[in-house]
Amino acid sequence: MRPAFPFLILTLILVACGTKQERLPEASGGQGEVLVVMPKGHWEGTPGATVRSLFEQPIEGLPQREARFKVAQCAPDAFGSLLKAHHTVLYASIDGKVDTVAVQLLRDRNARGQLMVLVSAHDPETWSGMLQRQAGEVTASIEEHQRERVAQRLKRERDAALVSSIRSQHGISVDIPGGYTVKQQAPGFTWLQRDRIVSGSGLEHNVVEGVLIHRHAYVSDSTFHVPFLVDQRDSVTKAHVPGPDPGSYMVVQRNFESLDLMPNGRNTTLNGQYAYVMHGLFGMHGAKMGGPFVSLTTVDTARNELITVEGFVYAPQFDKREYMRELEAIVFSLRVGAEASR
């Protein structure tokens, strides 16, 4: 059956040039935020409920419940000045007179580095149904945009000496920001770590962010599935990542009582090349310590080896979402082969 309303997704890259582009301000706003421009009546009705159900759903792979994005709302008549330059905007156009019923992705509409998702429909029910149908594409686009913002910052903050050292040892490039140091190195293995005392909400605790890089012989495509990569990771961390107590070492959390905690994995691409990304939880065999991790594995065809870059965070008492978003940007900055020298 054909839908009762016309529908399409448009991805529009708005390229401004000359003085017009120069006049655009830089996009602003806090990390992980999405600004929803919607009248209060719709925000308190079905459209607002739909937005919250999509954007505030819990993130998989974290040890506690955290929303995917931090959502803020403003009315259309308040969408001006600083708010208009927010880096990620969902703009709701719900009016019987709208010309196009569509979900549109607009780049650099009001600011450089802005993504605006413009959702237009004639009535609230059609609007909500359309957003629900395209929820996967919309949230994935916002996730990628948010990660790219972090990636651009990491390029400005990267430790040139450390990046060069990794390139020399592994033949790859990874954007490692300042503050990380080499914790341990072995043939085909590097462990980088940043330790910081972080305060917030009356709490103060040491936050540990780690990046592991390891190489393995590439045998076949059957490598790219969760059980194999989990076992491979455990073999690496048992040998090279000790815990805080004597005899303890890092492991992947597979279960807890009756809960299945095996990581989630999916296919992805990295600079046009096949890769596999995995999200899960780590713990310490023989010690009480743990948190989330993300890993990215691809093939270094020049060496016929698997290369894995992963990030993990230990931040007890604190939310982990934004730490993980930065670590994801780090692992997705991986460049292999000829790309590594660019």
Total count of domains? 2
Q: Which structural class best describes the helix and strand composition?
A: alpha+beta
Question: Strand content of the residues, in percent?
Answer: 35-45%
What is the typical, i.e. mean, pLDDT?
90
Q: What's the oligomerization state?
A: single chain
- Which CATH C-level class of the largest domain is it? Alpha Beta
Number of helices: 8
CATH T-level topology of the largest domain: Protein Transport Mog1p, Chain A
Q: Could you describe the 3D structure shown?
A:
It is a single chain. The protein is of the alpha+beta class and 342 residues long. It has two domains: 9-153; 158-341, Mog1/PsbP, alpha/beta/alpha sandwich (Protein Transport Mog1p, Chain A, 3-Layer(aba) Sandwich), CATH 3.40.1000. It contains eight helices and 18 strands. The protein has helices spanning 18-23, 40-43, 46-55, 124-133, 135-157, 160-170, 226-240, 321-331, and strands at 9-13, 33-37, 70-74, 88-94, 102-107, 115-121, 172-173, 181-186, 189-200, 203-217, 249-252, 255-256, 259-260, 264-270, 273-285, 287-300, 305-314, 335-336. Strands 8, 9, 10, 11, 14, 15, 16 and 17 form an eight-stranded antiparallel sheet that branches. The protein has a six-stranded mixed sheet with strand order 1-5-6-4-2-3, covered by helices on one side. Strand 15 and strand 16 form a beta hairpin. The longest helix has 23 residues, at 135-157. The relative contact order is 0.13.
